[in-house]
Design a protein that fits this description.
By secondary structure, the chain is α/β, with parallel strands linked by helices. It is about 35% helix and about 25% strand. It has one domain (about 1-90, about 160-245): P-loop containing nucleotide triphosphate hydrolases (Rossmann fold, 3-Layer(aba) Sandwich), CATH 3.40.50.300. The chain contains nine helices and ten strands.
């Protein structure tokens, strides 16, 4: 279980803050996070993976635990097995000249044997449909292919917690559905998916949802309950629709 307890945070020289955020996410759950622009969604995501407060400073309190262990106490070399992270802009997340090199770098850092590494590479390339781009420069791929490439890189280690920031933004319907299938397959292996998306319809597959409003919890509960209650659609200024109700 991933447990966030009483998270409070304020950036230096800023009035924005997260205020008393608490929730639990069980293994095998898909957890959606939504809210208007500047509601605190990406800030919370950074907190969950440890970027805040380890690399981005500010005034903070509270704790994040995974399996009863504070994430700040997890050694850096163990974190790739636990956390996978994809930010909104794919162009900021490639560092090598081929997709294969991107994947191999992570596997080598995890000390995975070459024979096992090859099987893992073949598997994630097949899952994402990127076999023919194995030796391509990821920077020349289409926008949707870049997002699939980032999934490929992250999933090769099969992280227990996969965190996503606007993974569906600016994608065509075909790529969106492909990524949704990949995420559900990963979740069904008893892993956690945490997906941040301003478009609530993109989170209709989630089990639970957290709605943030100005750094505070506006709703926390089952996604199906949220979609079935029209009063919540009236409470927030989102481009939402009742056409995508999760049964």
């Amino acid at each position: 279980m991933l447990k966030a307890s009483n998270i409070n945070f304020k950036y230096p020289s800023s009035i924005f803050k997260l205020n008393n955020i608490s929730f639990d996410i069980k293994l095998g759950e898909y957890f959606g996070i939504s809210g208007n622009n500047a509601a605190g969604k990406t800030t919370l995501l950074k907190f969950l993976v440890g970027i805040i407060p380890e690399f981005q400073k500010g005034d903070f309190s509270g704790e994040i635990k995974f399996k009863d262990k504070n994430i700040s106490d997890i050694p850096l070399n163990e974190k790739p097995e636990i956390f996978g992270l994809i930010f909104q802009n794919p162009d900021d997340q490639f560092f090598f000249t081929t997709l294969e090199d991107e994947i191999i770098f992570l596997l080598e850092n995890m000390n995975i044997a070459e024979s096992e590494a090859e099987l893992k590479i073949q598997s994630v390339l097949e899952i994402t449909g990127l076999e023919k781009f194995r030796y391509s420069n990821p920077n020349i791929l289409s926008y949707g292919q870049k997002k699939l490439a980032l999934l490929c890189i992250n999933l090769v280690i099969e992280p227990k917690i996969l965190l996503l920031d606007e993974i569906f933004s600016s994608l065509d319907e075909s790529t969106t559905q492909k990524i949704k299938r990949i995420l559900m397959e990963h979740k069904n292996k008893n892993n956690i998916i945490i997906n941040v998306d301003r478009n609530i319809n993109n989170l209709s597959d989630s089990d639970k949802i957290l709605i943030l409003d100005d750094g505070e919890i506006a709703f926390l509960g089952n996604t199906s309950d949220f979609f079935k209650s029209e009063q919540y659609f009236k409470s927030f200024n989102f481009n939402w629709s009742l056409n995508n109700v999760k049964n």
